[in-house]
Each structure stands twice: as C-alpha cells, then as structure tokens.
C-alpha cells in the first residue's frame, strides 16, 4: 500500500551550518566539513525553521515500504554527519590472525603500515593511510 506523504525532521544544533542542493547535503561544524549525496534515494530534502530552531525535513511522496525506510535512513545519515563535525569519529582497528602470525610495522611517521607474512606470503604489503587517519 502506498502512503501519500511521509516526513521526518532532523534538528540542526547551534554552531552547525547545513546546505542542501539537489539532494546533496553539506554540513559544516567546528571539526570540519562533511558532504553526503542522496541522489539515489527518492526523497525530498528541505531546510525549514520552526519556532526559531533550524531543521532538515525529509519527505517522500507516494511511497511504498522500501522508500519509507529510506526516510529514516536518510535522517540517520544526516545525524551521523552532524555528529562527525561536532564530536568526531574514532575507530580502533586491531590486527588478528588465525594460523600465520602477522607482523605489522608503522612507517614514515604514521602515514603507512607494512604488513608482513599475511596468509604466509613472502611479499610485504604496504597500506598508505588516508589523510586524517592516525596510526598509533
């Protein structure tokens, strides 16, 4: 069954600026700027202001179950963007092995990592880290 219109809103906190253009959302905050493209989803994105509070409104018209789920997904992605520019994001990765012991060395001031004996291989694998990633 189709629902005529469904909508959700996301509150935009103080100190955050958000731009929406052609389903492309750009969020700027104290820790930088993040961009996310929602062109693959059949949703409408609007910036509104209710009672002095800025909000992002996500609408879907004549949607079935899958498209209705995309509304909540879009809101969650935008909330994660806001969290990323205010608090930041940290992911701790661990190296594990089952049989062949892996040796990993951090090289050139934390910009690349050398992995030796991966699955018993003789060659050394070198992984260059993306900008902003820190190796400890």
TrEMBL record:
Pfam families registered for this protein in UniProt: Ribosomal_L6
Gene Ontology MF term list: rRNA binding; structural constituent of ribosome
Swiss-Prot/TrEMBL keywords: Ribonucleoprotein, Ribosomal protein
Large ribosomal subunit protein uL6 alpha-beta domain boundaries: 12-88
Name of the featured protein: Large ribosomal subunit protein uL6 alpha-beta domain-containing protein
A cellular-component GO term for this protein: cytosolic large ribosomal subunit
Similarity comment text for this entry: Belongs to the universal ribosomal protein uL6 family.
GO biological process: cytoplasmic translation
Keyword Ribonucleoprotein: yes
Keyword Secreted: no
